[in-house]
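Box 3.1 A note on notation
Throughout this textbook, protein chains are presented in two layers. The first layer is the amino acid sequence; the second is a token string describing backbone geometry. Keep the layers aligned when reading.
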Amino acid sequence: MTESSDYVENDVNLELNETANSDNEQNSIEEGKHVVVTQKQNSITHRKIKGVFRKERLSLKKYSSWLEEVKSDSTKSGCKAYSKQFSVKNGAKADVNKHMNGNIHQLSMKTFGRNPLITPSAVPSTELDKISAAEDAFVYHNVKHGHSYVSQECTISVPKTIFESSSSVAKSIRRGNTKSRAIACNVLESFFTGTLIDELLETRFYSLSFDASNKGNCKTYPFSVQFFSDIDVKTGMVEFIEDSHETAADVFSNACKIINDYGLKMENLTSVGVDNTNVN
């Protein structure tokens, strides 16, 4: 009887030991899983922290001139040269370097800082300057989209009526057919032509194109130039010459006048494009 009870007691102890070992193994497995999960969570957290904008990059020389912070979204960075935002949530510094080495960014950096926008460099201070700036902006917009001076005179009455009670500038705008033409020909034309010529003089070679054009009883010669700028091929209108004569000598004289008036060099002229060369 005693021997039998010893066997039973040993079996019970063995089962208890196996149960304890099983519990220990289960705890070890669970602890191992916890470690793995914790490591994964830390890894994920680390990646999330990595993919945000870091302000210390603004002090680095290779980034300071063009990189800017996007305060509304920490996973994005801004580019002053390209005026765009790009994501940094995947690679952080790698994303910044990828954008910096891109073709579009490098092309934008060639002119960034050298050709400032018109708006920040010419902020109107007096009431009269604000009125003039508003009138010039309307004329520029309408000419760019091919609107006639008559339609411009009609269009300006709409914002004047809407903002007349709340804006002294809108109330004071006066822009008829004649004034719109004067702004386009005497203000905007001289500014943009001067900008084009300044850029043209910095290049070495250029081509000249012109053609005779009839406007009622008026015959004009529009002259355009084409040249390589810092970023691409640029084409622009230089001058309209009114001349009723169409002889070869007159056409040649007009072309020479354009070259001399704007200080261009004849030896840098690579080609001449002319339509309807059979003149009278």
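DSSP finds eleven helices and eight strands in the chain. The radius of gyration is 37 Å.
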